[in-house]
Amino acid sequence: MKFETSAPAFHFVAGQRPLLISMPHVGTHLPDCVRHRLTEEAITTPDTDWHLERLYEFAGALGVSLLVATHSRYVIDLNRPPDGSSLYPGQSVTGLCPVDTFSGAPLYLRPADQPDQQEVAQRRHSLWEPYHAQIATELARLKTEHGMAALWDAHSIRSQVPRFFAGRLPDLNLGTADGASCDPRLAATLLDIGQKTQGYTAVLNGRFKGGHITRHFGAPSQGIHAIQLEMAQSVYMEEDYPFEYRPLLAARIQPHLRRMLEATLNFVESFEAS
Predict the structure, then answer these.
(1) Cut 0.85: pTM above it
(2) Rounded to an integer, what distance in angstroms lies between the CA atom of residue 192 and that of residue 249?
(3) Alpha-carbon gap, residue 266 to 45, rounded angstroms
(4) Which of 13, 98, 99, 119 reaches 20 to 30 Å from 91, CA-CA?
(5) Could you tell me which of 192, 152, 154, 156 has the C-alpha nearest to residue 171?
């Protein structure tokens, strides 16, 4: 089936400081050519990184750039390699164009409704490529203007997803590709903030080490530091349908989240000033 969409691949706001926040999984748009083939559960897009724009609403005051995906990860997962290869070999994962939910339920009404290779290529061309091109363009701009740049890949997930990990996920899951995508001093600073945040748990390069975006764009030796933060959704929202935002819960974690972003900016800008 031919893939067509009238919606833009992303929304982008350019900032003045050397940090880009990427939100590849917040989109909920399902083009008609995909929607009519999906199950009722899939149409509710339960595996969305819900409400991250609202949670990070202070980003504008920090003067950073913001890149927000529009389409559901069920259409295409912008944080997977373009060839769909696994980021965690030997572990259960979802693909570039997923065919099931995090709970293992089928997305499509019939196996014949799943996208074929031609449709996957069309989705990649229409959505994945523009999103990644925008990241590359913005990081290049920030590095040219400031001498160094940082990429913060913002995510969230239900606190318990047995398919991917046993037990309950830590609240704040920082990933730097086992140290390959970010200066270890910055990573240590961020982990310290997380671990000293009372009432929350934090880990670095645990179950989540950063997806394709972090691993591909992070190049500390070239002055680009990439960090992924995967937050447990229980920290700021209801994890069950209709996935409501909980402002009082969110207000507790937002100052600490802001401290992490400010620490990232301070790290990058200290090199700019030296």
Answers:
(1) yes
(2) 21
(3) 36
(4) 119
(5) 156
Confidence of residue 207 (pLDDT cuts 50, 70, 90): confident
**Residue 49 burial (CB count, 10 A):** 22
Whole-angstrom distance between the N-terminal and C-terminal Cα of the chain?
Answer: 55
Structural domain that includes position 176: 10-273
- pLDDT score of 190: 98
Whether residue 122 contacts residue 194, with contact meaning beta carbons closer than 8 Å, is answered with no
Residue type, 149: A
Residue 188, classed as helix, strand or coil, is helix
Q: Which sign does the torsion angle of CA 108, 36, 243, 48 carry?
A: positive
Domain assignment present for 3: no
- The owner of tokens 């696994």 is 86
Measuring CA to CA, which residue among 245, 168, 232, 237 is closest to residue 194? 232
- Tell me the backbone φ, ψ of residue 56, rounded to 5 degrees: -95, 30
Residue 211 tokens read as 């997806």
How many domains, the chain? 1
